[in-house]
Structure formats: structure tokens, C-alpha cells
């Protein structure tokens, strides 16, 4: 049983297609093919029911933390109850993401995103102290080739690591924390929890997903704007210099006369008045220049914010409680596919298979027949089959490994049907 560090656990085929592909391989025995489809149908129903219970559990525990709730409640949640709901929710959320074959993003990956230059040419800052809890999971890592202009002319093609799916959970600190920091105009509600799901996020740009992201100018942008401001400012000052000198000369003359004459202002001639007018005009020109530079800065920041918003608009897949249904569906699909694949390959082996042999057979089937590399979750699949009583241990081989066999299709259908029929027992 090989262990891979460069393969995903995610099975990138629909459940319905897996069932069709395996059903076509069973052979010409139409009875076996029909029984296999029936077994898969009951199995799907069982997992759908089981995950429905988890959905309700998530909704119940997320309710006091949900910033988007639109229903009323007579319940008054205590601080202890809210904390318990938060813990229950986060534990179940992690479990479901793991069922859906997501993997938690490491601290190293987050540090990489914060340090690496953004692909969208924006410098972003995230204050992680604003968060009481954060959970980030991802699924699917691929390399995309993107073209970038270098030095405005030369195009350069680079490989960019991209997360195909990324789930983000953030719990904000309470209002007292933000009040102490004198933070106003918050775009989120303190003490609440947000859940978001994104697609195709470059590994270097994870920081753009956080709700408190602040845009900062890159050194390159500061140099461009600063150079332009200095050049323009020098030209304005040179043009206004004579007027400023004339105005300050007149002001000095008036101040000196005022002091020497004991408080009498001197009369100004046409030359002095002209100097004052020139000076005021120069100050007005400099003020206009400064206002223009400030507007340039604000416009450039707005441009960056639009670029950030445009990218997030097309990458956002779902928000808050809507994310539950998305990842629950993903988890249900993955759990079904793992159980069906495990059962099928045990069923097709008359002499039985060890855990490692079954793992290799399934991974080789994907690689050889469908040109797909996966790291199949064999232990998880066998736990499901054993819980459903769809496989048994026949014997042990010379190495002491259990040799596993699948029950017949007829027996599998009977066992699953019995389990389904006995979820509710209201016949007294």
C-alpha cells in the first residue's frame, strides 16, 4: 500500500459516473448489474439521510453566530451556550470538510501567501488579531500557466499553484475588542462567524479572502506616484517661486514697520500689492497641485479595490449557511464513492484482498483506465464497509494481514434495505 504526498484524496469523478463505469465492468450478467445499481441506490439514500442529520446539527449550532439570520427566536443564549455552539459547529465543520476530502491549510501556506507578491499586483495587510478563531481548508492543488508583463514590455510565463476549492471560517472577536482599538466603520459584526467558499484561488493570494483585508501601496506604486509628485511639485514651485518670494518680502516689510512704528501698518504701493496678489496666486496653485496628488492617490486605491472586488466576485461560490449545503453534498458524494469503490473491487476478487492490495487495485484502476492519480482513503472506505457489514474477514495471509471479502450483492441489498427500514420504528 503506497503512501503519496503529492496526490489528492479527492476522487474527481461524479458519483453517478463512478456507478456507471463500475456497472459496465460487472459483465454480461444483467441480474448482477441490476443488483449493483440497487445496492448503490440504497447506499446513497442511507448516506443522504445521515448527512441530513449533520446539516441540521450545523444549522442549529450556527444560529446564534450567524450574521445573516432572518428568523426570530424566543431563546436567549448565554455566553456559555454560545461558546458551546461555536465549539460544536467548528468540530462538525472540520469533520465534514475531512469527509469531503478537504485538507487543512497549514500555517506555512498562510505565511507563504502573506510574504509572496500578489499576482494581482496589490499589497494586502491582514490583522489576524481581529479573529478569535479561523479555519481554512482547501481541496485540489493544480499549477496554472499565466502570462505577465515584465518591465511593461516583455511577457513572462510562470507556473502558479492554485487551490481549486478553499473553505474559510472566521470567528470575530467581540465588540469590546474593537472598541478598545477605536475601530469604526467595521464591515462585519463583532462576535459573529462567517463561512465562505471560493474557487481557483492562487496560493500566493489567500490573504485577499480575509474580511478585514486592507490595501497598501506597493513600493513600485509609491515610487511612480512619488516621482510624478516630485517632478510636478518642483515645476509648480519654480513657477510660483517668484510670487512667493515677493509675498514674503512684503509681509516681512509690513511686520517690521508694524513693530518699529508701534503698531501702525504701512501703506502699500502698487508694487507691494502686486507682490501679495502673486503670492496668493502661487499658494492657490500649490494647493491645487496637492489636492490633485491626493485625488490621484485615492483613485489609484479605488482602482486596486475594484480589481480586488472583481476577482472575488467571480471566485466566490457560497456564503455562511449556504456553504453547509455545498460541503455536505461534497462529503456525501465522497463517502459514497469510497464505499462503492471499496465494495466493488472486493466483490470482483473471488479469493479476497488485503487492505494494501485493495488500495493498490483502486488507485491503479484510476491511473491505468482513467489517467487520474489519487491517494485513495482505504482505511476510511473499509471502516464504512465494516460498519455497514458489507465485507468480512475471511482469513489471514502468511504475513498476518486480514484477507477481506465482500458479501454477495443479494446479501448487500438485504442488509442495506434492513438498515433503511429500521431508521424509524413506529409500529407498536
From TrEMBL:
<keyword id="KW-1133">Transmembrane helix</keyword>
<dbReference type="Pfam" id="PF12576">
    <property type="entry name" value="DUF3754"/>
</dbReference>
<feature type="transmembrane region" description="Helical">
    <location>
        <begin position="222"/>
        <end position="253"/>
    </location>
</feature>
<protein>
    <submittedName>
        <fullName>DUF3754</fullName>
    </submittedName>
</protein>
<feature type="transmembrane region" description="Helical">
    <location>
        <begin position="273"/>
        <end position="291"/>
    </location>
</feature>
<keyword id="KW-0812">Transmembrane</keyword>
<keyword id="KW-0472">Membrane</keyword>
<dbReference type="InterPro" id="IPR022227">
    <property type="entry name" value="DUF3754"/>
</dbReference>
